[in-house]
Request: fold
Amino acid sequence: MYGNAGHGSERVRRSARPVRARHPHRRRHDILTSDEFAAALDEAEAADLPDREAAVVREIRREHDRAAKVPTALVERISEETSNALPVWKEAKAEDDWTTFAPQVETLLDLKREYAEHIDPDADPYEVLFGDYEPWLDLSVAEEILERLRDELVPLIDELNDADADLADPFDGEYPEDDQFALAETTLDHLGYPDDHGRLDTAPHPFSSGTQFDARVTTRFDESDPVGAIGSTIHEFGHATYTLGLPKEEYGTPLGQHRGLSVHESQSRLWENHVGRSRTFLDSHAGRVNDHLDTDVSGRELYEAANQIYPQNCIRVEADELTYHMHIILRFEIERDLLAGDLDVSEVPAVWNEKMEEYLGVTPETDAEGCLQDIHWAHGSFGYFPTYSLGSVMAAQLFDAASEDLPGLDEDIAAGEFDALHDWLTENVHARTRSSTTRTRSSARCTACDSLTGHVAQNQRRERPPSGFPTAHRTLGCRHLVDSATLRTALLVVVLLPTGRLGFVTVVLEELVEDVVVRGCHTRLTPHY
Ligand SMILES: [Zn+2]
Reply:
């Protein structure tokens, strides 16, 4: 739910209204923890329910049990402190002064530790908070994925830093926002965005929000970087397709809600990275780009521009497909150590910069482009960041599975035919929402190596990767994946090296889904970034 947004709610909160009366968090908590609600839940649970209803009761049971352990006063205090923290964060970022924001971070860390303590006094507080964003995925799975990413990515990024080949960068002019906006609308229309169930607008930080009846998309433009806007527009489109794909008949029940933030991010990353950054799509899209921007770029040039790696970039939301994960790993490690009390808030700027140097070979010049850049901590959203990388892992796995089920997918993308992919994603992801947990599914499809090699082979057909480059298959050693308790599938990150060659890195993840129904007070509009 992040980026630099939250402007609306912040403006609303600054108005002089009695906090207690309009406190949405408190009201929702009161309903969820009321005796009547608990009694109805017990009664439903005691009934012999069909699978659908049973899954809904399972979801509500989890939310109720967590909420019931947290005192209302603490819920309210956390909400008030996050409201107070937002303007302080903005001021600290504007003045590039971490010490202004540090006391707020300290307070929110203490409140979140207390919150975690109430929910599970024996658990690692980070694990409990992670569970708010990824309810059914063990933190150990996320940790293993992030650790493997770190081990695989850092040497590759080092190599990138040493290479000095120049790739095409055809957009060296100024491209008016109106032209880019028209291109963004054409891109959405081309991908199948139903403009009678949504619309495109601009925002300081792109996000998508809505329900299965109407899901809006926002993007932002930089007159010197049209490629960035194409990517962020397709990213938010991915989020909107998931929201629009949720079962309409389940509106208002847990099964009318998304499965979790990682799955939501998998939809945006699948469209942004596996469709939007692919040579096939960009070959077919170059004409539309040239029509709107009055340029003359080839598919190859557009592909190189869209797949460039920027190791020297300090800003997470502007990071490329490869280095992005290092920004996530850095935040994950710092949050985990802060919550465990192994790191003091005053040490954050120094540790942040050390890790940036170690992982990406670059040191932020200011805290505003370092530890003050994200809004997450101002909202007390500790435990959120891993969902971004988990989403990317799922995206590769889902695209691999779709490619297997839809042999003509590449030709469809070239021809601008996206119905088959939309239908596949709706059937296999969107329609299945919260019917099953990420833990309960293991599938004959999770033969990680098959999907990896299939994917690698397809890419090699395009650009033969240099020999000696690590491919996912050899790097991981498939035996490891099959042995572990739950069957997993791996992510393949394809990078375009300055030499014009392709490189590969990998991760592992679990699969999903199935389902059920009962009515409950469940629909909340949450923006996805
Ligand atoms: Zn996103």
User: Anything to note?
Assistant: Confidence is low (pLDDT under 50) at residues 1-20, 441-448, 460-525. Residues 235, 239, 265, 268, 528-529 surround zinc ion (CB under 6 Å). The CA atoms of residues 363 and 491 lie 28 Å apart.
